[in-house]
Amino acid sequence: MTMIDATSATCWTPQWVQRVTKGHWLTTEPDATTKLTGICIDSRAIKPGQVFLAVKGANFDGHDYIDAAFKQNAALVIIDREEAASNIDAPGVLLVDNTIDALQQLAADYRKHLKQAGCTVIAVAGSNGKTTTRHLIHTVLASTLKGTQSPKSFNNHIGVPLTLLGASLDDDYLVAEVGTNHPGEIDSLGKILLPDAAVITCIGNEHMEYFIDLDGVAKEEAAITQYLPDGAPLFIEQNALNWVSKAPTFNKSVQVLPYKANLVSDEPPIRLRLSASATINLPLPAPHDANNATAAIEVARWMNVDDDHIKQALENATPMPGRLVIKRFGPATVIDDTYNANPDSVAAALDVLKNYAADSGARRVAILGDMLELGAISKQSHENIGKALVQLAQSGILQQATLIGPLMADAAKTIAQADTDLPAAHYPDINEQTFKAIIDSLESGDIILCKGSRGLMLERLVKMIETRFTQQP
Hints:
473 residues
């Protein structure tokens, strides 16, 4: 579901939409008293009073659903193909040059209204941990303040504008995730978002097919600082600062506030020192989540949230779907980290599997899919995954490895050449037969890590594991 709500505001009128987008009405202009309630790009999710924006995606074209949008009581629709409305006689069809451009124009204009209303916008960037960090910041701020965050991982050229347009003028804050997979994307998003503060979680091996090396990653991530006001805070993980501070896109006029987790224990439950007299028991399984939580602590203190509320909020935090979520399916346990994968995040996930307290005799199983968009470092990165699996097996920690996708052939070959008796199956094809074979290899009581790049959609496999171990005999 892709839907954003907005509170009633003077800018939410058909005339505001027409003025900002410079569109023209193909049918009767809606009444000037019409109050719009938000914007939506999914005709199935429209609520009465919302604007339907017809966007063309990889598998759909919103222009095919204009009539459906009006049947759902959309207040108006925005299109960029005039012929798509040839059979529509409802009032409120607005033609623009490009609907994505129109979305970004509306978001940029609405950002001015948010600024005038005193809403603090916080951007969260970085190679890994953006979604969890953004979620933890929102969790802590919401303990005493009114605000919102990016829905799901709305962090691209469509998601960031939708996030802005989903904020209310009476919100104290908005936490917006900012993502990238090509050079220049953060720059274009920063122009729209114009954050009051920013977080950079880390610099790592992300989308190396396009960024080439860590200097390229740092240049891209540092671009968000170009859109911070002079003296505005940049909360940045300490190691990331070494890269970002040298990037040509780094804005040296920001207030740099490095952070690093003060860990009391890096084994579950993760314990984090909040102050001289207080610690936090973090209900998340990964040691690196301590850094994500530390970013939330620093942002919350900047927003004048007291430590008591910070502690209570973090100790009641919940993981984000597909990001190291522990799921128990009958006698099996799944560590669901299926949202995405790169070399750094796979290493972190293997650490979680390694440290998971298994029952006596339980097997640890790693199911890993291809890491995509790594470019020149792809072969070596997949070989390194193979080496890491061998080391876990030799330490008696890992009892089975399952590798999915053509790129994982390099990991499988590395395991086959090693001195280990680790059972390691490689399935180059990603299909139902592969998933069925993997399901059949699992045993009652297994501790199973599932992780792969977004393109593999390994959450489908997690659902099959759930069915296998929870179905009635």
